[in-house]
Design goal:
Rossmann fold; alpha/beta; 48% helix; 5 strands; five-stranded parallel sheet
Length: 232
C-alpha cells in the first residue's frame, strides 16, 4: 500500500528542497517514489486563480474571507486528483510539497476561537470527504521563524505565478507568525504529524542534508525500510 508523506511549513521553510531530496533518498534506497507540489499554479484552473490571489488581484489578505480562499486551494487539489491517484498507483511512496494541512494552517490562522475551529472542521470535510482526497500517512512540519522565512524567500529564484520577490502572504510577517502558530497547534494535537526544527540550539540554520536525514529517519518505518545501523 502506497505511503503518502506531506511536507508542510510556512513560506521559506525549505519544503520544496526537502521534498525533492527525500524522493531522491528513497529512490536510492530502492523505493519507488514520486513527488508532487501544491498549488499547481500553471496546471490547474484553480491554481491560476490562486496565483492571482497571491499577487493581490483581489486585494490584500483581509479582503478575501478565508473560507472562500480555502476553496481555491481545495479546488486545485481536486483538479489534480487524477494526477495524484496515478502517482499513488505507480509508486511505493508519494511525497507532497504542501497538501491539505497547509490549507488548514494558512486559512485558519486568519480567525480565532470558535470561528477558527469551525473553519478547520469545514476545510477538513471539504478536502477529505466532499472531494475525497486521501489523508497523508504522515505530515512533516518543518518549523522556522517568520524572520528566517522572509530571509529565505528572498533567496528564491523566479516562480511561475509571480514576478514579485514575495507574494502578499510571504511579505506579511505577522501573518506568517500566525500561520506558524497554527501549524504548531495542529502538529501538537494530531498523531499523524511530526515536527522537524530547521534551526539548531544556537538559532542558526541546520544544513539541508541534516534536516533531510531526520525526515528520512522519521518515515523509514512507514516506507518499510530497516533501521539504519548505529553509528559508532
Amino acid at each position: 500500500m502506497t505511503v503518502i508523506i506531506a511536507i508542510e511549513g510556512i513560506d521559506g521553510a525549505g519544503k520544496g528542497t526537502q521534498s525533492r531530496q527525500l524522493v531522491e533518498r528513497l529512490q536510492a534506497a530502492g523505493i519507488t517514489a514520486a513527488g508532487l507540489q501544491f498549488p499547481r499554479y500553471s496546471e490547474t484552473t484553480f491554481g491560476g486563480v490562486i496565483g492571482d490571489f497571491l499577487n493581490g488581484r483581489f486585494g490584500d489578505l483581509d479582503s478575501v474571507h478565508p473560507l472562500l480562499a480555502s476553496v481555491l486551494y481545495a479546488g486545485d487539489r481536486f483538479e489534480s486528483k487524477q494526477v495524484l491517484q496515478q502517482a499513488i498507483d505507480q509508486h511505493d511512496v508519494v511525497v507532497l510539497d504542501r497538501f491539505t494541512g497547509s490549507n488548514l494552517a494558512h486559512q485558519c490562522a486568519k480567525l480565532d476561537g470558535d470561528e477558527r475551529t469551525e473553519l478547520m472542521t469545514w476545510i477538513d470535510h471539504v478536502e477529505h470527504v466532499v472531494f475525497g482526497l486521501p489523508r497523508p500517512d504522515m505530515n512533516v512540519l518543518i518549523d522556522i521563524s517568520s524572520n528566517w522565512s522572509r530571509e529565505l524567500v528572498g533567496r528564491k529564484g523566479a516562480r511561475d505565478y509571480t514576478e514579485s520577490e514575495a507574494d502578499i502572504q510571504e511579505s506579511n510577517l505577522p501573518y506568517l507568525e500566525r500561520v506558524r502558530a497554527c501549524y504548531l497547534t495542529i502538529a501538537a494535537r494530531r498523531d499523524d504529524w511530526c515536527l522537524v526544527e530547521s534551526l539548531d540550539e544556537n538559532g542558526e540554520l541546520r544544513t539541508i542534508s541534516d534536516i533531510n536525514k531526520e525526515i528520512f529517519e522519521l518515515i523509514r518505518p512507514l516506507a518499510g525500510l530497516p533501521e539504519s545501523p548505529i553509528q559508532a
